[in-house]
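User: Last request for today: this protein with iron/sulfur cluster, please.
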Amino acid sequence: MTYIAKPRYRHPKLKTNRLGFTHRDYEGSVSTLCAGCGHDSISAAIVQACFQLDLPPHRIAKLSGIGCSSKTPTYFLGTAHGFNSVHGRMPSVLTGANLANRDLIYMGVSGDGDSASIGFGQFAHSIRRGVNMVYIVENNGVYGLTKGQFSATSDKGSKSKRGIVNTDEPIDLVNMALNLGASFVARSFSGDKTQLVPLIEAAILHKGAAFIDVISPCVAFNNHPGSTKSYDFVRAHNAAVNRVEFVPEEAEITAEYAPGTTEDVTLHDDTTVRLRKVAHDYDPHDRTLGMNYLHERQAAGEIVTGLLYVDPDARDLHAYIGTTATPLNALTEAELCPGARALDRINAALR
Ligand SMILES: Cc1ncc(C[n+]2csc(CCOP(=O)(O)OP(=O)(O)O)c2C)c(N)n1
Ligand code: SF4
Ligand SMILES: [Mg+2]
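Assistant: Here's the final one, the structure of the complex with iron/sulfur cluster:
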């Protein structure tokens, strides 16, 4: 309950990161979601990723739309900047904030209803523009907050809690993100922190539009036989393309991985995502391969998880449109308003 404050006391021997922060410093208010909701596991994964990356929490901006998923930023990174926007409008608010201040880390949290229905256009344009962000969809296949209507990601033929069968074709947001040019595309499962935490870490350090679709069962409205987003269904149909381990540049974790079974993906800042292939010789640098693989496994009834595509040399919207490197709030009045003569010069150049 949000009105129950978390105790401020913490054990003096709690592990700290390089900034001296404990895990507790990355948490938020007590969650009001249903016990067992997959969204809470995703919040925990975000907390862990930010703690492990030694990020100053106040340098992160978390933005969301409307839905149970969009409520979750309240439950992590309590000292970060936060903006709970209107239903489906998180991407444009995030884009605006990002353009005004490129120095923050932008994390957009949304739901399948929020991003695949009312906010579908917003999702598409923020991805295709290459906004430097981590865009997480907490995908439960229903509108959880409004009592479990099918969302646009519900699979055709899946059953609602009341036994109604969905007759609409689903939208696969991973496929969409690949098509729209996202430079980092991944899918995971809320109940698989081993896979999810390194994916979030890598997405944070990726410069460009990083999209992660996280299957997140709704225990209240979509966790029954006939649902294709239930815990049981996902566990039974999960086809992981790779095991992902994020290795910060100065860390010394290398010996644990058997030779010949790993592949390093160097990100823009020389940090590394380590992939362990399970069954396939999967190349996450090939967008076309990723799309084909998704279709192929989907036809076989499997959910592909892991890092599906990454462009280590991606550019972002700032680079494309040549914005100033200084956040707008740090520009002087003279820089923001260069005066009538400068305006005359611009007008003359346009005649
Ligand atoms: C403009 C507008 N239309 C409809 C709603 C009602 N509404 C609130 S949340 C929601 C769907 C949320 O679904 P999703 O994004 O999947 O989040 P979940 O609750 O499943 O995590 C809807 C339709 C609204 N708040 N605003
Ligand atoms: S209704 Fe579903 S999505 Fe919403 S908090 Fe409960 S379990 Fe989570
Ligand atoms: Mg939903």
